[in-house]
Design brief:
The protein is mostly helical and 199 residues long. The protein contains seven helices and no strands. Helix 3 runs antiparallel to helix 4 and helix 4 crosses helix 6. It is globular. The two termini are 28 Å apart.
């Protein structure tokens, strides 16, 4: 019995070491924070500091915080939004023609770090709900804190390219929210199928 207990203890200890080592190095978190700081500085210099509140940039910031403080839920939530943000960013560049190196680093570099982190720690079945909640909270915060004409996180108005489809903001908000829920859920499931799942 004693040998059995010792063997069990050793196995549990080895499992804990493996799980702890799966978490990327905390120092890696300095990189997304530096990327976010650089993009924030660029936006401030351009007179549009509030653009740093777009969900994709906040996700980069949360990746850094999650790595430094070893918060797996933050890393997973950020990863979902960085995956969503990539095609949205590409579409926005095509429409507006606006480009910047800091935006590139935020969307490409931030996504790469996030994917690497999630590959190490895996995902949970409920990360899509956390991602959805994060956006809704951030969207409401934008309504309370920033001018309506900036429309960060589509908190106030219909995007120009969707005005031919929707006639009022309420129906637009409902449609985009339902689409967001379906997208976060789909990406959560897709990443879980491709990356290591949480035990």
């Amino acid at each position: 019995m004693r040998i059995k207990c010792n063997t069990t203890t050793i196995c549990v200890s080895m499992w804990l070491v493996v799980k702890i080592n799966n978490m990327p190095d905390q120092r890696l978190g300095l990189l997304p924070l530096a990327i976010y700081a650089a993009h924030f500085r660029h936006n401030m210099a351009s007179g549009r500091g509030v653009d740093s509140l777009w969900i994709c940039h906040i996700a980069v910031f949360l990746s850094g915080v999650g790595l430094i403080f070893r918060k797996r839920s933050l890393l997973r939530t950020a990863c979902i939004w960085l995956v969503i943000g990539l095609p949205c960013w590409i579409f926005d560049m095509i429409i507006t023609g606006q480009q910047s190196i800091t935006s590139f680093l935020s969307h490409i570099g931030g996504l790469a770090i996030s994917i690497f982190s999630v590959w190490r720690i895996g995902l949970d079945h409920h990360d899509w709900a956390r991602a959805t909640t994060l956006f809704l909270v951030l969207q409401q915060a934008c309504r309370n804190l920033i001018p309506p004409d900036l429309n960060v996180n589509i908190a106030f108005a219909i995007r120009p390219e969707a005005k031919g489809v929707f006639t009022d903001y309420r129906s637009y908000w409902l449609a985009t929210t339902l689409c967001m829920i379906a997208t976060t859920y789909g990406i959560n499931r897709s990443l879980m199928n491709r990356l290591k799942q949480v035990c």
